[in-house]
Design a protein that fits this description.
Elements: H1 2-29, E1 42-44, E2 50-52, H2 53-56, E3 61-67, H3 72-88, E4 92-98, H4 105-115, E5 121-123, H5 128-132, E6 140-144, E7 150-155, H6 160-170
Parallel strand pairs: 3-4, 4-5
Antiparallel strand pairs: 1-2, 3-6, 6-7
Helix pairs in contact: 3-6
Length: 172
Amino acid sequence: MKRNAIVNLAIVVLLVFTCYSFWNKQEDSAFAAPNAAAPEVKLPDLDGRWVDIRKDADGKAVFLVFWTSWCEYCKKEASVLGELYGEFKDRIAFYAVNMTHQDDLKEVRSFVQAHRLPFPVLLDEKGEVTERYRVEYLPTFYLIGRDGIVEDLLIGEIPRERLLGKLQELAP
């Protein structure tokens, strides 16, 4: 009898934990998936000016890339992103969110200068925005529509042609 009570209690605890984990994960992962509202991004840029991408994008779609200066794929993608910015800057607001909580600010500045990044570089010094966007791999790209809804999510080294196609879909 005592054994059945212990087994039943263990089952109830397991069910409660599973349900809690499921609902928590559903709520948390909503931002990482296409068709969900993009989380707010308010971060300082390299000059210390605070940027709110919803307001500063001026009604444009948003291309958001999370990166670090030590990421090999990020180094490879930097020139491609600069070229694409030149092609789409009138239709899409580009922002590079540096995961400064996992990087060195001196290295970040050196990277930006060496690669001549022409778009705003934002500093996520506490990792809060990185956490809201559930960034686990680098680089991570979010394509956000003018309505603030995540249109697509890309991870890792992406060929230029694929990025070009995604940007054309985002802002024809």
